[in-house]
Amino acid sequence: MDSTQERTFCKWLNTKLEANGYPPMRSLVQDLSDGVRLIQLMEIMGDTSLGRYNKNPRMRVQKAENVNKALEFIRQRGIKLTNIGPEDIIDGNLKLILGMIWTLVLRFTIADISEEGLSAKEGLLLWCQRKTAPYKEVNVQDFSSSWSDGLALCALIHCHRPDLLDYDKLNKSDRHGNTRLAFQVATEHLGIPQLLEVEDLCDSAHPDERSVMTYIASFFHAFSSMDQAETVSRRVEKFAELMQSVWLSRNDYERRARNLLRALSGVQAEWAASMFTGTYTDAKAHSASFNKYKHSTKRGWVTERQDITTLFGNIQTKLRTYGLREYVSPLGLAPSDIDHAWNDLLHSEAKRSRSINAQIRQIKETLRKEFADLANDFSQRLHAISLELSSVEGPLEEQQEHVRTLQTRLPALSDALSRVSRAENDCISANVEENDYTIFTCQDLEFELELLAQSIAKKISFIDNQIVSRNMTNLTPAQLEQFESTFRYFARDGTNTLSLADFNAALASLGLVYSDEDMDFLYDHLVQEYGAITFQAFINLLVSASDTLINSRRQKWNPCQVDITEDQTSPDQLRESFRGIASDKPFVTELDMRLAQLPSSAIDYLREVLPFQRNEVGEPEYDYETWLEEVFA
């Protein structure tokens, strides 16, 4: 076991030395005996200088000074060394040297491992068990025989980097082949040095626990670095997605606000340019169009206005949630501008309604006067003929001629009555029921005209009868009276009455819209107010409108780290994340972002919004520091 530990620990120490430009050791006993390598290792692990020391010691006392300086540094770091002194290292006591190195492994490689409250060995074992749990052939219970078939090592690699090996295609019985493959993949693709040999695991009944722990700890730290790199990328990705969603919402708000304002202005301009032709049909067409607008177009605008107001509130809530600067809408597109435009629309609607109603009233009044003028004139003409008929006198022949002349004037009266009838039909079409300018109806005048025609006919018959009577001498007066009564009875005409039906189908209502909500009103109350109304109630009652607020679902993502913490997307975290992607440069390039495996959509967005300057070869260097200062409040 000591040979395995010596080889493993020597390789572990060499990784530290070679990474800092020192040549590797060949033998722990020989290379550590003068204290030079030990001091170099302590300076590397402690990230500090131990001061002056003998770099080429020749005498034992010089070697002892070097070794003692290194051991004293170890003790000052709180690392307890048991039963080892400078002479043990100078004299090459391998057992004590290995114990000291194991203490260093524990302190600098394993002690900082933590998993679900467990640390060091227990934490590392729990980490291995959790990562390999999905692999049924693997059962990690220790750092010895559980690793002897190579499957646990392959499972660790496949769990984190399934692209490096196909676990399902492994020959589960090929212990040496699986172990050799794991060593090769770890060295070539994960940068994990091969501290063990295949034989150390596969050909030993009980592989050395300390050697295995030292090697497995390298996997833990390698994959932890990968997790941290993924956390950095995911944090930037999450923030880029957040900013892109805000950007899309802002564009959507501005587009919809412009369209709504353009529509409100357009309909008002259309109303202002509208002209009446003076006919009732035209006025009713304007009224029908206006009512259709209120029941369809305007209701769509009411909904759109509420949705736009809600969208604006959602944008501000999201920005405040992440501590970002509040959104200031372009000039003329603020919610208050929409409210002013809406109030202007309401005033224009009232003006339009009054204009249409006034036009209809004016047309009705004109129709009343036109009918009254025709009816009154007809009545006067009819009355004049009646008076003239009643005043006929003189010899019978002259009376006969006079009455027949009056009868020739009746066709002109019939034509005039037709004009009265058309005027009355116009009034009926316009729903004109009352008329204070005349007491006549077309039926009244028609009846009087028929009565006048009968009176003239009877007068002519009477005069003719009188002439006949005057000339008849062979009939008694009683016979003449009997014949005349019989004639009047059979000459009588009946009358028709016109029965008219009325139509009243006008129902007008105005929509009542809530004023602008306070921007600091709680987001969930807005959502409740908005969701409590149905579209049917909105349609039946134009005098009211309901607000709908949408709960913004907020998702918070916890990155998977060795130490599990909540990612708040703070300015400092984002700044560190960008620095991680940029390799501590004050700027980040497109290549840096692509190497960090940011999605293309996130890279495209960051290229659009990050300020940049071009370097000497023309490549953009994006200034993430300035951008973060601008977007955070």
Report the β-strand fraction as a percent range.
under 5%
Tally of helical segments = 23
Q: Given the C-alpha coordinates, what overall shape results?
A: rod-shaped
Specify Rg, calculated over alpha carbons: 54 Å
Number of strands: 4
Order of strands in the sheet with most strands: 1-2
Order of helices and strands: HHHHHHEEHHHHHHHHHHHHHHHHEEH
Distance between the termini: 61 Å
Summarize the structure.
64% of the residues lie in helices and 2% in strands.
Topology diagram in text:
Layout: H1 2-19, H2 28-31, H3 36-46, H4 60-76, H5 86-90, H6 94-110, E1 114-115, E2 118-119, H7 120-132, H8 151-160, H9 175-190, H10 198-202, H11 209-273, H12 280-321, H13 335-390, H14 396-408, H15 410-429, H16 442-471, H17 477-491, H18 523-531, H19 535-540, H20 571-582, H21 590-595, H22 600-609, E3 612-614, E4 620-622, H23 624-631
Give an overview of the whole structure:
By secondary structure, the protein is mainly α. It is built from 23 helices and 4 strands. The strands form 2 sheets. Strands 1-2 form a two-stranded antiparallel sheet. Strands 3-4 form a two-stranded antiparallel ribbon. Helix 11 packs parallel to helix 13. The chain is rod-shaped and about 185 Å long. The two termini are 61 Å apart.
